[in-house]
Amino acid sequence: MTATATAVRGPVVSASARSAVAYTARRTGVTIGTILLSLVVLLALWQLAISTTQIPSFIAKGPADVWRYFTQDGDGGTSAAHRATLFKLLGVTLQDASIGFLVGVPLSVLVSVAFTMFRPVEFMFMPVAMLLRTVPLLAMAPVIYIIFGNGAITAALIGTVVVFFPLLVNVTVGLRSVSQQSVDLVRVYGGSRFTVLRKVAVPTALPHFFASMRIAVPGAITGAMLYEYLFTTTGLGAAVPAAKAAFDYQLIWASTVFVTIVSVVLYTITAIIEAAVLSEWGPDAGKAVGR
After folding, report:
1. What is the pLDDT of residues 174-207, one digit of tens each?
2. Which residue would you say has higher pLDDT here, 281 or 96?
3. Residues with Cβ < 8 Å from 90, sequence gap 6 or more?
4. Is-contact 47 63, C-beta < 8 A?
5. Do the Cβ atoms of 63 and 258 come closer than 8 Å?
6. Which residue has the higher pLDDT, 234 or 133?
7. Calpha distance 217→221 (Å, rounded)
8. Distance (Å, whole) CA 248 – CA 58
9. Which of 46, 67, 189, 289 is deepest in the core (most CB within 10 A)?
10. Rounded (5°) CA angle 281-262-210
11. pLDDT digits 0-9 by tens, 249-277
12. Is 130 helix (H, G, I), strand (E, B) or coil?
């Protein structure tokens, strides 16, 4: 009778699962609400700047102008053609950005783990990494281009530079921010350095990792657009100087808004994934070793 009643009621959701779902929903709601509020403020400031400056309307475009570019036909072409053009350019830019992102993220995590596990490696290479970080990307990009030429390798390296350093620093700090009591507990039960890394350091570093990922996702797009702006004739980065040469300021403003929206969407997706992952570990990630 009890088994039948249980089958009728269906699976019982545990309290920890309900707490994880509630945490994820709360963090997601806060993130989306904050972003929407920021966008409203940004649009208001944008319109205010356009209205109060003396820049000719031929050059300066407001939110309503960009909206009409996406939704209404005009002398410059149809709205469908405008959207198709921007989506085509976006596809190229996202492809270039994904190359740097997929190389930079794993590489930075592996180097951070090496720094944490083997201190001499950090003493040898962290100063070099910080020195390279001080070099402006705009100055480094031509050097990369001269050495590797135009192509996927150059796009990967420029994107990797943007993604690598924020992740390297933050993940290394996260891996080092372990509770000494938790480390001692693992060691008492015979755990090795790799056990400490898996049971304590990695959970502790998760908030640092995702904080860096929220920077890395739009940063990868920025790196891709810089690569396109300097060395190619495709993608959103190359479309801006081409549109400027053709006095197509509508396309410039629309491209800027479009890539901003895409970056915000990707940022939001990253924040939602972060909330879902951290809901498993909770705000005290890494302070307990029972997982």
Report:
1. 888 887 787 778 788 777 778 888 788 888 888 8
2. 96
3. 236, 258, 259, 262
4. yes
5. no
6. 234
7. 7
8. 9
9. 289
10. 20
11. 889 999 989 898 898 888 888 888 888 88
12. helix
User: Over 80: is that where the pLDDT of 282 sits?
Assistant: no
- Token digits of residue 199: 């049971």
Give the whole-angstrom CA distance, residue 147 versus residue 161: 15
Q: Write down the residue that tokens 């056990």 correspond to.
A: 195
User: At which residue do the structure tokens 């970080």 appear?
Assistant: 133
Q: Is 90 helix (H, G, I), strand (E, B) or coil?
A: helix
CATH T-level fold of 86-281? MetI-like fold (1.10.3720)
What average pLDDT does the segment 204-212 reach?
A: 88
Q: What pLDDT score does 106 carry? A: 92
In the block, residue with structure tokens 């495709």: 234
One DSSP character per residue, 177-242 reads: ---HHHHHHHHHTT--HHHHIIIIIHHHHHHHHHHHHHHHHHHHHHHHHHHHHHH-SSHHHHHHHH
- Would you kindly state where each structural domain of the chain is located, as residue ranges? 86-281
